[in-house]
Design brief:
alpha+beta; 49% helix; 16 helices; 5-stranded mixed β-sheet; Arc Repressor Mutant, subunit A; two-stranded antiparallel sheet
């Protein structure tokens, strides 16, 4: 890694990369510096690897690159040797520390309207990300969260801290001991998965289509104790004014990549199914992919390639399970694909990644 001095800007700090990509308000990282210090992490190294300055974390109106934000938490997990860094960061996160977005939700009259406010204002707080609140066939309500930017492959820590933040918003109305009925994560089961059940007080399922909290519908009618119509309006106006410039838009190829990623554990999905899922005609999807210089086959290949490199570096995942998560019905087909991409077998690639990590 380059020295800190070589990475300095005229202001004497690191500068955020990934210009032009999706952004997130820095308030979402409030408290991370203290958390890293408590876990004896190297703050300069962690923030340097993420490409942002420690002083940026927590500033309520500063926009960070979403890619750099996710990288910050992945680096924090790796360099503090705490695989569940994001889980516990989100578990103790005060919703007020989300800044404008958090105060807007807490000012709503009921929990249902608080969640609707989070969903409505999400694009002003965090771009290229989706949230939905919808009923399940089981009768439960489902609050979904998913980053839609395919370039952000490593995002497990963000998913776990985000659901923890939403849990704490809900506990404002339902009490500190309240727990959802189920918790879902899109990433594979980590080695410390029992901590997830302890943090949420609920059954936790992994390798799901999206990250979600499932809970009983009657919870939505509960009153928010800090309801304040004037503060809600003020926070909404502040967010709108902060985002006067055109927000980054998710292109169709990004939507397709995100939908493919969610469907891969069930096998390689046909394009017709993906088009229906993102609510566009098959003709429109094909036209937009051609405009981006992509074919559907190439897009699926790239999605598998990126996830394979991420998953192979995680020792708790057997190679055979990775093959299934990427939609390969046979381990031999997955092994051939990895050799085509990298020139190595999956096990040789895992050993190479280990040696690079330890260097």
């Amino acid at each position: 890694m380059a020295s800190a001095d070589s990475d300095r800007t005229p202001f004497g700090k690191w500068t955020a990369p990934d210009k032009g990509g999706p952004s997130i308000l820095a308030a979402a990282a409030t408290g991370i510096v203290a958390d890293i210090e408590r876990q004896h992490g190297d703050i300069d190294r962690i923030f340097g690897n993420a490409g942002i300055a420690p002083e940026m974390a927590g500033l309520p109106t500063l926009k960070l690159s979403l890619n750099a934000f996710c990288r910050l938490f992945e680096q924090s997990s790796r360099l503090t040797r705490n695989d569940n860094f994001g889980l516990w960061f989100g578990n103790q996160f005060d919703a007020r520390d989300l800044g404008l977005w958090g105060y807007a939700a807490l000012s709503a009259p009921t929990l249902g309207e608080a969640l609707a406010t989070l969903i409505e204002l999400l694009p002003l707080h965090q771009e290229s990300t989706s949230m939905h609140l919808q009923p399940e066939h089981t009768g439960l309500m489902r609050l979904d969260y998913r980053i839609e930017c395919p370039q952000i492959v490593e995002r497990r820590q963000d998913a776990e801290l985000s659901l923890g933040m939403f849990l704490n918003v809900m506990r404002e109305a339902l009490g500190v001991s309240w727990s959802p009925e189920e918790v879902h994560f899109e990433h594979p089961k980590p080695s410390g998965w029992r901590d997830h059940q302890r943090a949420f007080g609920a059954p936790v399922f992994f390798s799901q289509p999206s990250n979600a909290l499932l809970f009983k519908p009657h919870c939505l009618a509960m009153a928010m104790p800090a309801k304040d119509a004037r503060l809600l309006l003020a926070m909404r106006l502040c967010l709108v004014r902060l985002n006067q410039s055109d927000a980054a838009r998710v292109c169709v190829s990004d939507l397709v990549s995100s939908a493919v990623r969610a469907r891969l554990p069930d096998g390689c999905p046909p394009l017709e199914l993906i088009a229906a899922e993102i609510r566009l005609s098959l003709k429109t999807v094909k036209r937009e992919l051609r405009r981006d210089g992509l074919s559907y086959k190439d897009l699926v290949e790239k999605t598998r390639h990126d996830l394979a490199l991420s998953y192979i570096g995680k020792h708790q995942l057997p190679i055979s399970e990775i093959a299934l998560l990427l939609g390969y019905s046979e381990l031999s087909a997955f092994s051939r694909a990895v050799r085509r991409w990298t020139g190595h077998s999956p096990r040789a690639l895992r050993a190479q990644l280990d040696s690079q990590r330890d260097a």
